[in-house]
Amino acid sequence: MIKRSIEEIISMVGGIKTTGTSEVLNIQGVSIDSRTLKEGNLFVPIVRIDDGHNYVEQAFENGAVAALWQADHVPPPEGLPLIIVENTLKALQNLAQSYRGQLNCKVIGVTGSNGKTTVKDIVTSILSTTYKVQKTYGNLNGEYGLPLSLLEVEEDTEIVVLEMGMSNAGEMTILSEIAKPDIGVITMIGVSHLSSLGSREGIALAKLELLQGLNSNGALIINGDEPLLTKPLSERRLPETLSVIRFGESHTNDYFPLTIEINPSDLSFTMNRYQDKFSVRLLGRHNVLNVLAAIAVADRLQINQQDIQSGLNNLEVTGMRMERIPTLKGFLIINDAWNASPVSMKAAIETVSNLDGFNKKVLVLGDMLELGEKENEFHEDIAKSIDVTKIHSVFTIGNLSRIISNSLSNSKIEGIVKHFTSKEDLVSECNQLLNKNDVILVKGSRGLKLEDICNSLKK
User: Fold this and answer.
1) How many domains does the chain have?
2) Residue 22 pLDDT > 90, yes or no?
3) Do the beta carbons of residue 246 and residue 253 sit within 8 Å?
4) What angle do CA 413, 415, 421 make, to 5 degrees?
5) What CATH number does residue 414 fall under?
6) pTM of this prediction?
7) Inside any domain, residue 172
8) Residue 139: what pLDDT?
9) What is the DSSP string of 54-81?
10) Maximum Cα–Cα distance for the chain, whole Å?
11) Among 107, 119, 133, 181, which residue's Cα sits nearest to residue 312?
12) What confidence tens digit (pLDDT) does each residue in 268-298 have?
């Protein structure tokens, strides 16, 4: 993590002045949460729904050695070592950008509508066979999360893998200019954030802002099956030294699969650049493309095939992404409750529908949020995509997901189609229905926190 004197911090954040003690202070790490702050941290009060300035004194009680203070919040508390800045979020970003410039490491930035967390995890696991690697933990991938991730990097780290998330135009430009990636990855373009970006074209252009801070001697790795990425890139004047590498299903890509074998607990596939088969403990055909993107990164950094497979063998994926949870009763929960979009929802449903070795296959589907004016149409489309000959029952929860259960109400599904307004009632119904060798998928947008259902079922 960052370790600097307060004088260095003042310079890095563009601080105006300090108040309080005149002692020489050394900072170790940065926090924006006074509750989880560690001794020696710099506290950064972010102005959000709850103003972090209200917790500055608490931060010092919990071990902070200094804090930023936004100039328009007057008067500042007296007798505390404060660094006065014009805007605390911008100062946090300045600090991370300055620290990035002092680090002697390569940065890999991963973005995309779906799959960015999984690709980040795969890349980290593969590269860790050869390098000292740090990655974004949790969901620290946005305007304040990405700077915090960078500031946690140890100075002897060789490669940093950063997840980069955005919801509005211009945000990726800020993140890219902070992170200065040497390799950028765009996994795919979906329809998440249609409400703020208006169209898939708008989403693609927002993701391509990744180019703003990308090393001109580096590489951009994209889903080559997506014309909304390939067409704008073909029309741009890119640096001749920048490599554009494409992965996808099509044989026109630089990386593509030749054969794919889907098993109940893993995937295996062959691809155009290697003779031997790769295997990985992931569910879903879509994850083959995520692995291909990671292999493209590995090739760029000269990782051999044996180490690539070793990294895949030791892969630990962030929770709530097609996470397999066995239960004492003998049924399997697949927790994919981190988030949901039409693309990821269909992929998860298809994966569970095609799993072998299970009796009943049950879907628990929540709302897909931030889809704009076509949100009803997208939910209706999910209902149409469900193969009722392979799924036993469908339970929905949330305001929008009722559209799915209503659309399926007259289908020839074997079991039950039912909408719930209570997680407790839904769990009770599942416990009555599920037995040994059954499988249940739980999938919905982050706002619904459907992991509560998984946790209850697990008990």
Assistant:
1) 3
2) no
3) yes
4) 105
5) 3.90.190.20
6) 0.91
7) yes
8) 81
9) GGHHHHHHTT-SEEEEETTS-SPPTTS-
10) 76
11) 119
12) 999 999 999 999 999 989 999 999 999 999 9
